[in-house]
Structures are given as structure tokens and as C-alpha cells.
Design a protein that fits this description.
heterodimer; A: 164 residues; B: five-stranded mixed β-sheet; 6 helices
């Protein structure tokens, strides 16, 4: 009897892992699918908060103009200040235009080297949600003048039902 | 106290258990890793088409007879068809009347089912977020039919433009 009683605790120590394994397997599958569909890194800062939208179009990898609350950034390179761009009466932001024409030349050169490549002038615009429309129209006008006419506005995805 | 027979049966079952320790180790490493790299808010895009300088010169033909236009102003929204104002919606408090706008646009869509273009003209001081919201509302509407929600396309071709600050749309309608 004494030997039996000593055996019992070692038997009770085996955990039942089946339900935990179920959770882990489902979680793993979910995370794997969501990780593979991801394309773009969200720069979540206080100076760049994207508005939310019900759109379902995925962004394609192309030139990006970021308009934060302080700077206008083309491909990680700050080119102009937002305050200066807002104050000027002219629609064309000169510094941005210069950078965009350079980018257009570069893109056209690359398009010329590839077999089926054509310069389509696609650009992503990520803009801070509280910026006035005046600034956005200046940025869009400037980019269209530099032959970047296919503009995609980057926005955060939101549930469709919440938009009604 | 269990009998000797029961004990033997239990030990027999324990021998059949899989050794999942290695798999658990893998899971414990993999799941935090995937949780860290997972981004739950996805970035999507709204497509716009802007005329480039060479095309601006070519565009000199007469404007179309019907051109649906939404005016976004500081104090409200006006919907026009190119010649006259169809509806004026005054802002209630801080929020724009998006649901009323959606209803107006659904009515227009019923009247002109073939039309899929809309121009949104905003005042210079309108916030970007408001503009995106207006684009959302004019692209599609969520309607309830028999308890089930269904989204219908309204005017997916959205173009944007600027309009000078002007008197309230309520006065014009």
C-alpha cells in the first residue's frame, strides 16, 4: 500500500496538453496567414496618422510621398516644410517639384531599361489626417506637374459597417 | 485507493502519449514572434487620377451635361449636378451629415444608374480626414435589406478639386 501511494503523484503530474495544442495550432495558422498578406510597414507616429477608409484596394510598392504634420518626405528624404508650403501662395511647391522630377527621370530610365516596363507615374501619398485640403491640393498638383498622375491615397482599413 | 488493475491500465495509457515537448518549444517561440510582426491595421489605398501637364492641354472639349458634384464646406455639404444644387445639408454640431449625404447620393444613383463619376470639391481649410470620409460615402453605401447589411456601389470614380470659400449651401437650396 505504501509503495502505491508513493507512485500516485508522478502519475498526476502529466498535463493534458490537447486543448492548449488546439489553441496554439489555430493561433499559429491565423498569424501565419496574416503575416504573409502584409506588405507595407505602418509608420505610426504622432505626426503621421492616416485617416481610416472602407477601401479594399491593396497598395502597390512604388514611390511614396509622406506628408506629416511637419515635413513633406519623398522616399524617406525630407524635401520641404509643411508650414512653408502652406504659407506660400503658389500652388507648386518648388522643392517637392524638383525632387519629383528627379524621381520621374529615374523611374523613366528604369522603365526604359526593362523589357515591358512603361512609366505609369504611380505614387502613394500618405498624409496626416488633420492637414488642410489646401496643402494636399498643393502636393497633388505638384506631383501631377512632375508627371506623377496616378495617385493612391494611403489610408487605414476600417470595418465596412462602421462607415454607414 | 485505486486497485492494482486500474493503476496498470492508467500507466499503459500514459505510455501512448506523444512527446510534444519539442513541438511546444517551437510553438512558444513562434507565436510571440508572429504576434510581434503581425500588423492588425492594414494599409489600403484610394485611387485618384490627376491630369498631367500634357493632358491638361488636350482637355478642352465641352463639359458633360451631367456632372455630379459634392461641395464640402466648413458648415455643411452641398450636392450639385453641374447646373444646380440638388441638396444642401447643414452640419449638425461637429459632425458632417454623412448619412443624409449617403441617402441623397443613393437617390441620385437610382435616377441615373449608369453614372459612376463624382467630383468632390472641398474648401481649402477642410481636413484631409473629412475628404477621405466624403470619398468613402460617395464610393459605396451600406443598406439594410431584411435585416442583412449589403453594400452597394454608388460612384466609384472619384475626382477631387478645390473650391473657394463661399456662403452656406443651405441658402442656395
Amino acid at each position: 500500500m505504501r509503495t502505491l501511494r508513493r507512485h500516485r503523484p508522478s502519475m498526476a503530474a502529466t498535463l493534458s496538453m490537447v486543448s492548449l495544442m488546439d489553441i496554439f495550432t489555430i493561433l499559429l495558422l491565423f498569424l501565419l496567414t496574416s503575416a504573409t498578406t502584409e506588405h507595407q510597414v505602418v509608420p505610426a507616429t504622432d505626426v503621421l496618422k492616416l485617416p481610416s477608409s472602407t477601401s479594399e484596394l491593396l497598395p502597390n510598392v512604388t514611390l511614396t510621398i509622406m506628408v506629416t504634420a511637419q515635413d513633406i518626405i519623398v522616399d524617406d528624404k525630407p524635401v520641404a516644410k509643411v508650414t512653408a508650403a502652406l504659407e506660400q501662395p503658389d500652388l507648386l511647391i518648388a522643392e517637392l517639384y524638383q525632387e519629383m522630377t528627379y524621381q520621374a527621370e529615374k523611374a523613366k530610365f528604369i522603365a526604359g531599361q526593362t523589357a515591358d516596363g512603361a512609366f505609369r507615374g504611380t505614387v502613394n501619398v500618405m498624409a496626416h489626417k488633420t492637414l488642410p485640403f489646401r496643402l494636399l491640393s498643393k502636393v497633388l498638383y505638384t506631383s501631377a506637374q512632375a508627371e506623377f498622375g496616378n495617385v493612391s491615397l494611403s489610408v487605414m482599413q476600417r470595418e465596412k459597417g462602421a462607415a454607414a | 485507493m485505486p486497485s492494482a488493475g486500474l493503476l496498470r491500465r492508467r500507466r499503459h495509457a500514459a505510455e501512448h502519449e506523444l512527446s510534444i515537448t519539442a513541438f511546444m518549444n517551437l510553438m512558444v517561440v513562434l507565436i510571440p514572434f508572429l504576434l510581434v510582426i503581425a500588423v492588425f491595421s492594414r494599409i489600403v489605398t484610394l485611387e485618384l487620377y490627376l491630369p498631367t501637364p500634357s493632358e491638361q492641354q488636350a482637355q478642352s472639349q465641352a463639359p458633360p451635361a451631367f456632372s455630379l458634384t459634392i461641395f464640402l464646406r466648413q458648415d455643411g455639404i452641398a450636392v450639385g449636378n453641374g447646373r444646380e444644387i440638388l441638396a444642401g445639408l447643414i452640419k449638425q454640431g461637429a459632425d458632417y451629415p454623412w448619412e443624409e449625404l449617403s441617402k441623397v447620393l443613393q437617390r441620385v444613383k437610382k435616377e441615373f444608374p449608369g453614372e459612376d463619376t463624382v467630383a468632390i470639391l472641398a474648401e481649402p481649410t477642410i481636413e484631409y480626414e473629412t475628404l477621405v470620409r466624403a470619398m468613402d460615402v460617395s464610393r459605396m453605401a451600406v443598406v439594410e435589406e431584411g435585416g442583412a447589411k449589403r453594400s452597394i456601389a454608388l460612384f466609384p470614380n472619384v475626382s477631387i478639386g478645390e473650391v473657394e470659400a463661399a456662403p452656406a449651401p443651405g441658402a442656395a437650396s
